[in-house]
Specification:
single chain; alpha+beta; Structural Genomics Hypothetical 15.5 Kd Protein In mrcA-pckA Intergenic Region, Chain A; Alpha-Beta Plaits; 9-stranded mixed sheet; 7 helices; 23% helix; elongated
């Protein structure tokens, strides 16, 4: 407690435990759901982790080890930590300690997800300015044309904004790869709709330096130390 170098902001500490992101921690603090040694926490409070910290009246302790896993999500699995949701990703993996998914992959899509207990990584991967590339294979209902791919490459207006430039490459008459750095709601499906394509299959195959290669559907693996280092690099 007396060593200021050992202290960290309460929102960062909560994120490091894996229960929420920093933004969610700020909201919990604002709504009075976090206490430190019996006192309601305030934004900007600093802790060492040795205090009695409660969130929603439940004790929170620091994680001893950071966990990062890659998971090949099958079609139909829901990206939520809500235990009441059927076929949610947490129950599907059944990992022995608390983890949560970074970002989302809609229920109709499959492919690579990263799960962790490190709340600090959420903002790194979620924010476009950090340039975390996410690559997908898309199968559509019509012949892929150069004109449609060029429109997606330059950006599509959706949800009141224009998507950032994307990398797009045709790989077969009905398939192409697309690499984006944003994560707008159902972004790729909406981009395809804008050029009159219906997505039949959407599969994410890469997040930054992590690929789905060799990872069977429904399987997961720990990231290597080298992968984690590169993933966290600014």
């Amino acid at each position: 407690m007396n060593d200021p170098k050992a202290k960290t902001r309460i929102n960062k500490f909560l994120a490091s435990t894996g229960i929420c992101s920093r933004r969610q921690a700020d909201e919990l603090i604002r709504t009075g759901k976090v206490s430190i040694n019996g006192q309601k926490a305030k934004l900007g409070d600093q802790v060492t982790g040795k205090e009695k910290i409660l969130v929603n009246k439940k004790p929170v302790t620091a994680n001893k080890e950071k966990i990062y896993i890659a998971f090949h999500k099958p079609f139909g699995v829901i990206c939520t930590t809500d235990p009441n949701a059927n076929n949610n990703v947490i129950d599907y993996i059944n990992f022995p300690s608390r983890i949560f998914p970074i970002g989302r992959l809609d229920v109709e899509s499959s492919g690579l997800m990263i799960l962790t207990n490190d709340g600090d990584i959420v903002n790194k991967i979620s924010k476009a300015q950090n340039r975390f590339e996410k690559e997908y294979i898309v199968t559509v209902d019509q012949q892929v044309t150069p004109e449609a791919l060029e429109k997606m490459k330059k950006g599509i207006v959706m949800l009141g904004q224009k998507t950032l430039p994307a990398k797009v490459e045709k790989i077969s008459p009905h398939q192409f790869t697309i690499t984006i750095i944003q994560g707008l709601n159902r972004q790729i499906r909406r981009m395809c709709e804008a050029v009159h394509y219906e997505v039949k299959i959407l599969k994410r195959i890469r997040i930054k330096n992590i690929t789905i290669d060799g990872l069977g559907r429904g399987k997961w693996r720990h990231l290597t130390p080298e992968e984690v280092t590169e993933l966290l690099k600014d």
